[in-house]
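Sample 3 of the quickstart, ligand guanosine-5'-monophosphate:
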Amino acid sequence: MKDIFCRIIDGEIPCAKVYEDDDVLAILDISQTTKGHTLVIPKAHCSDFLSAPKETIDKVFAVAQRIGQAQISMLGAKGVNILSNVGSEAGQSVPHFHVHVIPRYGKDSGFQVTMKEQDISSVDLPRLACVIKEGIKE
Ligand code: 5GP
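Result:
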């Protein structure tokens, strides 16, 4: 079965379109976490950021940059959060790669990013870095 973004791309479900070219569609997120919250979606299906081909990532992020710039120049946003959830544990609810471009106005209640410092006294950081390094593919 087609995911919801494939159905939007195929014109089966309406959307508020912000941008479109041959490869990428950008639409307003139905949830509008903040005013102007936009999703940038590749037209060719791939499930998430980690499995997307590099050319797809390049195209999607290039559009995300332009949309973030427009949110600042046209909506008066003071900043922008760019994020792509991968996996349900990370909050991904639609299994089709997409990037959220979330404009921030300074007093937003809808979207919070908190990265709390953890006690890392028992973590060997250089060793941990080596473990990740070993898994990085060419
Ligand atoms: P995720 O949770 O996968 O990172 O993001 C999926 C996003 O898609 C959610 O923020 C959700 O509000 C949005 N969404 C889900 N269904 C629709 C829809 O039918 N139309 C639009 N415009 N956005 C949708």
